[in-house]
Structure formats: structure tokens, C-alpha cells
Amino acid sequence: MSSFLLRCLCGPLLRGDGEDDLYSILEVSRDASGSEIRRRYLQKSLRMHPDKLAQRGETVTKEHRESFQQLQMAYETLRDPEKRKTYDRVGSLGLKLAEDPMGAHQELFTNFLRADTSARCRVLM
Questions:
Q1: DSSP per-residue codes, 20-38
Q2: Any long-range contacts for 34-41 (C-beta under 8 Å, 24+ apart)?
Q3: DSSP helix/strand/coil, 2
Q4: Do 14 and 97 meet the contact criterion of CB atoms below 8 Å apart?
Q5: Residue 5: pLDDT above 50?
Q6: C-alpha distances out from residue 1 to 7, 94, 117, Å
Q7: Distance between CA 110 and CA 125 in Å, rounded?
Q8: Quick count: other Cβ atoms within 10 Å of Cβ 67?
């Protein structure tokens, strides 16, 4: 199936309500170069890394660890040109489906239930 059809038919299912934009996590524009993405990741990782926080005397929480994991995931996706292209086309869930089709079925089902009737009909037809 072409990426255009995938976007049109399944778009409402692939984009979750609470989906974080990977570009905003790294605080770069959508047309940022690979070197700009890398530079920004290094800057943010030095500030957000749980070990660095502990060295500065801060208490490391679960939220700190989750934020750093999101930062790493954003960088891993956007630094790879193929993953970045897929993410730009179909979002995070579409990327998960491309990498592991059986791994994202619960999120797909949840998004299907949240989608409006016309979006559900387009998918089912």
C-alpha cells in the first residue's frame, strides 16, 4: 500500500491524541539538518541525563528517566533518514507498525475507538 493511501485511510488511527512531536522534544525545526539534530541532542542530553542530574545533587525521579528516554527515542528516529521519512509520513505509531507490525496493535485499537465515524468507515472500506 502506498504511503499516500496509508496516510489518507489510516491517518486518524496512526496519530494518537497525546503523541509527542519528536521535533519538539529535541527543540528543532522540521527541516533541521542531521548535524543540527545531533548538536541539539548532545546539548539536551547533558542537561537531562539522570547521571548528570545526580552529579549536580538533584533527586532523579521516574519522570526524569522517562523524559531522557523520550529524548533518546526522538534522536534515534530523527537521525536515521529512513526512520525520519517514515515518521514524517505516518507518525510514531506508523513507525512502530513499520518496524514491528504486531507490537502496536493495542494503540491502533484504542485510536480506532477514539476516531470519528467517518474515519472508521474509511479504514473499514
A1: PPHHHHHT--TT--HHHHH
A2: 34/79, 34/81, 37/75, 37/78, 37/79, 38/75, 38/79, 41/71, 41/74, 41/75, 41/79
A3: coil
A4: yes
A5: no
A6: 10, 13, 23
A7: 19
A8: 15
pTM assigned to the model: 0.69
Distances (CA, A) of 97 to 14, 27, 115, 117: 9, 25, 18, 23
Confidence of residue 59 (pLDDT cuts 50, 70, 90): very high
Does residue 97 contact residue 104 with C-beta atoms inside 8 Å? yes
Which residue bears the cell 545531533? Answer: 38
Copy the grid coordinates of residue 94. Answer: 506508523
